[in-house]
Input
Amino acid sequence: MNVYTSLQQARQQQQKKIAVLLDPDNGSPKVVDALVGQAMAARVDYFFVGGSLVMNRQIGQWIQQIKSICNIPVILFPGSLWQVVPEADALFFLSLVSGRNADLLIGQHVVAAPILKQMPIEVMSTAYMLIDGGAPTTVSYISNSTPIPADKAQIAVCTAMAAELLGMKIIYMDSGSGAKNAISESMIQAVSQHVPLPLVVGGGIRTPERAALSCKAGADVVVVGNVLEKDPSLIGEMAKAVHESN
Output
């Protein structure tokens, strides 16, 4: 089963999934080993690797290390073309549909396309929607884009509907690394009800309770990252909250 099929089935069967977002800049090989071990014990469903600003150029070796330990699917979450490596199982082909930066809407994709066509990696066209999380984030600064206001669910719904009609396969709503606030349940629910695509939600999810609420509102995959860098032991509680929200 490829990764996208697993995401589709999860949505159809209302089986909530959890993904751990790993930043190659934050962690030594020993830290990665420990984190992956905890993720396996917690039955984490996916690893996302990448970010808006990654200075560590060893991303391929990082993924190889993860895959040597476990069989949890590794999905690239690339902030730039050089983060695209063939070692991963799949890649979010991110188009920043919430912004008006043409380079991140289609420009970088034109450059990446011939490279990806030659790679043995599953490419998933993904509508990336940046939502205001109450504080400036790396992704909003690097992408030079304005997030969708947190209280404007209708804008988020219409943006997701446009992405669906354009043929994209996944909706990824994110308030960004370091966001003060998670995306509201009302916005998640509105998008989930109007668009049948797998819905990934991340940013500002710091507690098991918030993870569960996001799932119950309609998120199919909840993404946690920064909070685990501070307290990796939360993986078990987070995963349990997500899986039990089915």
In short: The mean pLDDT is 93.
